[in-house]
């Protein structure tokens, strides 16, 4: 129940994320709240971690794990991909323990996008960690992204729009934009997804997003 749009623009990365959070009461009633922040921004380096899929892991919010990781200083003296692998090692056992609770055969996901760069990197990058479980068992993958990146179940609301606007799928288009225009474009695309979800009769993400960036 998420839609996260991320883009590598001319001199940074911008992230636009919905705020939907699902709360279950004893596994029965479901409450939706649209005040959940899915973007965590580091203080000392230009790095954003955003979350999609399950956002409570072992009864702790995903952002608490990010905060604990930042405070640990394990990420110092590493490039971005080394941080990605180190964060994987930091959180993986907890993620797997959480996913193993879900045994009904449906697909459940815990995903993290790590967006940014360090002093050991020459350019901004987006890497994704994604664990999932379904009737076939547990899977894990690391993905490297460029240009416009869509994450979460809400991305299906943009399939038709992106087919009709092919330039939005190109790395060169986003690299031509500054921050102001990137923010504007991401908000427009998110608004298109909101209209489409209404037409499809689904309600997988909030109507309003949060937006953050890191850049030179």
Indicate the CATH architecture: 4-Layer Sandwich
Strand order of the largest sheet: 5-6-9-10-11
How are helices and strands ordered from N to C?
A: EEEEEEEEHHEEEEHHHE
Q: What helical percentage do the residues reach?
A: 25-40%
Cα distance spanning the termini: 32 Å
Question: Looking at this structure, what is the CATH superfamily?
Answer: Aminohydrolase, N-terminal nucleophile (Ntn) domain
Count of extended strands: 13
Q: What is the typical, i.e. mean, pLDDT?
A: 93
Radius of gyration: 17 Å
Task: Kindly identify the CATH topology.
Answer: Glutamine Phosphoribosylpyrophosphate, subunit 1, domain 1
**What's the CATH class label?**
Alpha Beta
Major beta sheet summary: 5 strands, antiparallel
Structural class: alpha+beta
Beta percentage is 25-35%
> How many domains make up the coordinates?
1
Low-confidence stretches: none
Shape: globular
How many helices? The count is 5
3D structure, described in words:
The chain has 216 residues and is of the alpha+beta class. The chain has one domain (4-215): Aminohydrolase, N-terminal nucleophile (Ntn) domain (Glutamine Phosphoribosylpyrophosphate, subunit 1, domain 1). Helices cover 30% and strands 34% of the residues. It has five helices and 13 strands. The chain has helices spanning 62-72, 80-99, 159-164, 171-175, 179-200; strands at residues 4-9, 12-17, 21-25, 29-33, 39-41, 47-53, 56-57, 60-61, 108-116, 125-134, 137-145, 148-151, 210-215. The strands form four sheets. A five-stranded antiparallel β-sheet has the order 5-6-9-10-11, with helices on one face. The two termini are 32 Å apart.
């Amino acid at each position: 129940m998420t839609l996260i749009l991320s883009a590598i623009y001319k001199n940074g990365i911008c992230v636009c994320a919905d705020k939907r959070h699902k709360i279950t009461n004893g596994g029965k009633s479901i409450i939706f709240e649209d005040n959940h922040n899915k973007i965590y921004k580091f203080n000392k380096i230009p790095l954003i971690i955003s979350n999609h899929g399950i956002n409570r892991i072992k009864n702790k919010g995903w952002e608490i794990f990010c905060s604990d990781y930042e405070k640990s200083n394990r990420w110092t003296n590493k490039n971005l991909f080394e941080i990605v692998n180190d964060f994987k090692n930091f959180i993986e056992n907890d993620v797997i323990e959480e996913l193993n609770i879900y045994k009904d055969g449906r697909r459940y996901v815990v995903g993290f996008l790590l967006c940014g760069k360090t002093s050991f990197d020459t350019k901004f990058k987006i890497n994704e960690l994604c664990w999932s479980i379904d009737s076939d068992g547990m899977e894990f993958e690391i993905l490297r992204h460029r240009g416009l990146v869509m994450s979460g179940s809400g991305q299906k609301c943009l399939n038709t729009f992106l087919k009709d606007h092919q330039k939005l799928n190109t790395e060169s288009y986003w690299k031509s934009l500054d921050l102001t225009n990137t923010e504007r474009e991401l908000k427009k695309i998110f608004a298109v997804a909101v209209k489409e979800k209404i037409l499809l009769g689904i309600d997988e993400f909030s109507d309003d997003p949060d937006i953050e960036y890191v850049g030179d």
